[in-house]
Write a structure and sequence with these properties.
346 residues; alpha/beta; UDP N-Acetylglucosamine Acyltransferase, domain 1; Udp N-acetylglucosamine O-acyltransferase, Domain 2; Acetyltransf_C; transferase; acyltransferase; lipid a biosynthesis
Length: 346
């Protein structure tokens, strides 16, 4: 590929030859080299403007393809597909159904995005969808009725690695949502109607059942499963091999089968800019709530109220968020929070 400077030099040299009548003085070898240079520069310009579509790719004539899109061999693009500018579809990838892909996305070899279903799959900009991932497939919920609209919305700058599966919603009134800047490592599964926020990290084989909510900056270790309808709070950490069957409040670290509270996610809090003073406040609040002594051995509601009235910690917004997260987990249709082995009866 020629650089812009080389292309400019070639044009200047060609103009000089034409104006001076010097072309006839070039040897056949020099003329062949000049023609090859001209052809390469022309191909480079065409690729930058219109992209490249391999002759074995099957593109429906009604599909909308942006500028500078590269489509590799044996790809297929359905009629209702819209692909943004500067996207790359690598060999054997498939875009199906009513699917919209934003600018500068990379769909790697073997990946399948969308499905031939009622509804829609929307992929934002600057996303990478890994080898053989399946994004926007039909849900695995037996309550889904064939013909119902189902939806998946993925934000921007997500890295969805190889063999991941992300399913559409189970009904037209809901949607599966992935936010921005998430790293979803290999072989993860995100089921129907899940809501995933921003800047989360899911290690390999993280499995989310239907209707799970993950807030922001959560981190899972490998091979964990989360029960349907659970909530995973912001800045929380789930240890490897855990089975999570109840909510994980904000800032908490859980692990085990069944997962139990093990303390605060101290390392995660430090990495995300929480001050030492804020962390000390959170630790004091955690101890009052989950490590009761004789002076505060009442029920959970009593201990939460005591934290809210403690002048040393109540003024920290992080403490307020943590208390609110715990309270919301006991609302109707929620699952409560992961157990702590040292709890007194509450």
């Amino acid at each position: 590929m020629l650089t812009p400077r080389a292309m400019l030099g070639f044009r200047s040299l060609r103009a000089l030859f034409d104006s001076a009548g010097l072309r006839r003085h070039l040897s056949p070898r020099q003329q062949l080299s000049a023609r090859r240079l001209h052809r390469e520069s022309s191909m480079d310009r065409r690729t930058q403007e219109s992209g490249f579509i391999h002759p074995t790719a099957v593109i429906h004539p009604d599909a909308v393809i942006g500028q500078g899109v590269s489509i590799g061999p044996f790809c297929t693009v359905d009629s209702a597909v819209k692909i943004g500018n500067a996207c790359q579809l690598q060999a054997g990838s498939h875009i199906m159904g009513e699917t919209e892909i934003g600018d500068s996305c990379i769909i790697q070899t073997g990946a399948i995005v969308g499905a031939d279903l009622a509804g829609r799959t929307i992929i934002g900009s600057h996303n990478v969808i890994g080898h053989h991932a399946v994004v926007g497939a039909k849900c695995q919920d037996l309550k889904y009725k064939q013909g119902d609209e189902c939806f998946l919305h993925v934000g921007d700058q997500n890295d969805i690695r190889e063999y991941c599966s992300i399913h559409r919603s189970s009904k037209s009134s809901d949607r599966t949502v992935i936010g921005d800047n998430n790293l979803i490592m290999g072989a993860c599964h995100i089921a129907h109607d899940c809501k995933v926020g921003n800047k989360n990290i899911f290690a390999n084989n993280t499995l989310l059942a239907g209707h799970v909510v993950v807030e922001d900056y959560a981190h899972t270790a490998g091979a964990i499963t989360v029960h349907q309808f659970c909530h995973i709070g912001s800045h929380s950490f789930i240890g490897g091999g855990s089975v999570v069957t109840q909510d994980v409040p904000k800032f908490m670290l859980v692990s085990g089968d069944r997962a139990e509270l093990r303390g605060l996610n101290l390392e995660g809090l430090r990495r995300h800019g929480f001050s030492n003073t804020e962390i000390r406040g959170l630790r004091r609040a955690y101890q009052k709530i989950f490590m009761p002594n004789e002076s505060n051995s009442g029920g959970l509601d009593d201990r939460l109220a005591e934290v809210e009235q403690d002048k040393e910690v109540a003024h920290f917004s992080a403490v307020s968020f943590m208390v609110q997260s715990i309270r919301e987990s006991f609302q109707q249709n929620r699952r409560g929070i992961c157990k702590f082995r040292n709890w007194s009866a509450s």
